[in-house]
Amino acid sequence: MSLTDSPALARLGVLTAAVGLGSAALLLILAQATPSTAAFLRCALAIIALAPFAVAEVSRRGLPGRRTVAVAAAAGAFLGLDYIMWAQSVYDAGVGVSTVLISVQVVVFPALVWLLHRQHPGRLFLWCMPVMLVGMLLTGGAFGVDPGATAPLRGAILGVLSGVLYGVYIYGTYRCRVLDPGLIVTPVLVATTSAGAVTLIGGLILGGFDFDLGVGGWAAMVGLAVLGQAGAWGLLAVFSTRLPVTETASLMLAQPITAVLLGTLLAGEQLAIGQWAGIAVVIAVVWLVSGGMRLLRTRGRRPAR
């Protein structure tokens, strides 16, 4: 077994990706970029990072099919809208809340597979949906908010909408893997380019482009593009297929947990008790829907060595 096939290395890769994605909101705060600027630069800088790997992949495995390109581009359009809404949500509701709310994607993705491909997600999924809604309401501030949040209601709404769009994007990447299983980076590059075009158009319509970020701001944006997008998705593309789906999904819980911890410890956020309860509910639902109980049962049946 080669080093890259090691389950321990795969777990480390997925966990690193989750922590990188979880740090994205804090990096956005540190960059002090406007939502339009942050959304556009996140894509533009990620394109630069992804392009060499995509070129190498195409030289080895050939160009993607037309359907793959079309699906990736459509998914990227949803991702671009997601980035615009999410960036505003971070400023409105905070680092932790905005990241936890996009966890609604774990409901959206299976729902799309169910509706479009008749793959029933199971009874547990249906039971978890109303519980997830309660968790979202609590996290969004139904019973108290962080006093430092500037627009908690708008931030909560945008965070949930961002998660819905994110779920559509994940469905698109899933379809790309089905259509062209040999390609990993190239569909991500196509989607990121499409997302960049959408964020550019959105920024021109909404206004707010400001690229005078200073050295620290640009460093934070580069970190966001690499750690919170290109690097994270690259690690997931390489290592997530080397682990059971349930284990990958459970490790990805590090994303919202990282965001909440960073928001509390470094961004000075003071979440209300109701929001902490909502975060706990959302994380528990994500764990259940992602197969957490099944993973525990599987490990419990392993013979002792």
Automatic annotation (TrEMBL):
Protein's cellular compartments = Membrane
Q: Where are the transmembrane segments?
A: 12-33, 39-56, 68-87, 93-117, 124-145, 151-171, 183-206, 218-239, 251-267, 273-296
Q: Which UniProt keywords apply?
A: Membrane, Transmembrane, Transmembrane helix
Q: What span is annotated as the signal peptide, if there is one?
A: none
Q: Domain named EamA: which ranges?
A: 154-290
Q: Could you tell me which Pfam families the record lists for this protein?
A: EamA
Which Gene Ontology CC terms are recorded?
membrane
The protein's matches in PANTHER family, at most eight in alphabetical order, are given as:
EAMA DOMAIN-CONTAINING PROTEIN (PTHR32322:SF2), INNER MEMBRANE TRANSPORTER (PTHR32322)
The UniProt entry's sequence similarity note says: Belongs to the EamA transporter family.
Protein name as it appears in the record: EamA/RhaT family transporter
Q: Which organism is it from?
A: Brevibacterium luteolum
